[in-house]
Design goal:
single chain, alpha+beta, Creatine Amidinohydrolase, Chain A, domain 1, Creatine Amidinohydrolase, 2 domains, 6-stranded mixed beta sheet, elongated
């Protein structure tokens, strides 16, 4: 698997006239070479690849890293590159991902490898892993299953007086017990007026009767993530809550139906946005409809008004429209969807009908 992925990267490097690519982001390194530790750097050359880490990961790197020669160095890898003169070839073009490499790190690389030319080549890694093979999709399916089951398990603890942070802790615990390595991102549990905060991570607020509670969370399974959102009501829903919820649900389902290989991400977003706008809430839907997931929680293709991406078979994307009314509350509903040539296959099994708990 690593050999195939590195070969794919080399094709992109060749198209950009790069002699090597410096990979520093740990998720990229895991995707390309299999390493799961917390310190390392990968250099992929036109022929061969080198992986650098320190003594703490000697045994781990020896067992995990494939497709690259492992080097154990003293201290941070960047500072030790000067000890490898074969990497310091005059006028060799080294690409780096400017989205993740800091200015300080770039200057240190220049100091360690003064003969090479450095080029910001974030696009080389940009679309890496957007299209998944069957094995990758199975891993995402498992991550989705974990999040689905964990959500079902925590419904029983939702009641007036329980704090959002307590619900988050139980939700993350259940995902870990079901096989998740870690939360895919910072778990959102937002109740009452806070459900109008699209990224309202769990606080110490107590859940009240009549609150909307929005959950946005995901599991990580063998490096691959899920990302789902559900909104429930504590007690009986009001007519306004039902109206807003059903509006978002209608938009979400329409977005899923639009998903198909060859369709523009902008078009999928447009289907959801038109439904919400027609109902008078266009200004209350201020984010994109979705994004790709995989070994990152946010990869391409984008599903937004500004997206230039076209969906391809093997993409796994989220469909997550929302309506947020400041001071009152909000609703978001999100599924993970596999793009196929015939349509979109929803991976989530958790119910989407309004749950009144």
């Amino acid at each position: 698997m690593s050999a195939k992925r590195i070969a794919e990267l080399r094709k992109k490097m060749k198209a950009e006239n790069l002699d090597a690519m410096i990979v520093t982001h740990l998720d990229h390194i895991r995707y390309l070479a299999g390493f799961t530790g917390t310190a390392g750097m990968l250099i992929v050359k036109s022929k061969g690849a080198d992986f650098f880490t320190d003594f703490r990961y000697k045994d781990q790197a020896g067992k995990q890293v494939t497709g690259a020669k492992v080097h154990i160095v003293q201290g941070e890898a960047i500072g030790q590159l000067k000890e490898f003169p074969d990497l310091n070839k005059k006028n060799f073009r080294y690409g780096f991902d400017g989205e993740y490499l800091t200015v300080t790190q770039r200057n240190r690389i220049r100091h360690a490898l003064p003969e090479v030319l450095l080029a910001n080549a974030s696009g080389v890694l940009g679309e890496l892993g957007w299209v998944k093979d069957k094995a990758e999709i199975r891993l995402i399916e498992k991550a989705v299953e974990i999040s689905d089951v964990a959500f079902e398990r925590i419904l029983n603890i939702l009641a007036p007086g329980v704090r959002e942070s307590e619900v988050r802790a139980e939700l993350e615990y259940q995902m870990m017990m079901l096989g998740s390595e870690k939360p895919a991102f910072e778990t959102i549990v937002a109740s009452g007026w806070r459900s109008a905060l699209p990224h309202g991570v769990a606080s110490t607020k107590k859940i009240d009767k009549g609150d909307f509670v929005t959950f946005d969370f995901g599991a990580t399974y063998k490096g691959y993530v899920s990302d789902m959102t559900r909104t429930v009501v504590i007690g009986k829903a009001t007519s306004k809550q039902k109206r807003i919820y059903n509006l978002v649900l209608r938009a979400q389902k329409a977005g899923v139906r639009k998903v198909k290989a060859g369709v523009d991400g902008k078009a999928v977003d447009g289907v959801c946005r038109r439904i919400i706008t027609k109902a008078g809430h266009g200004d209350d839907f201020g984010h994109g409809t979705g994004h790709g997931i995989g070994y990152f929680v946010h990869v391409g293709p984008r599903v937004s008004p500004k997206s230039n991406d076209k969906l391809k078979a093997g993409n796994v994307i989220t469909i997550e429209p929302g309506v947020y009314l400041s001071g009152w509350g909000g609703v978001r509903i999100e599924d993970d969807v596999v793009v196929t040539r015939s349509g979109g296959r929803v991976l989530n099994k958790a119910p989407k009908n309004l749950l009144e708990l």
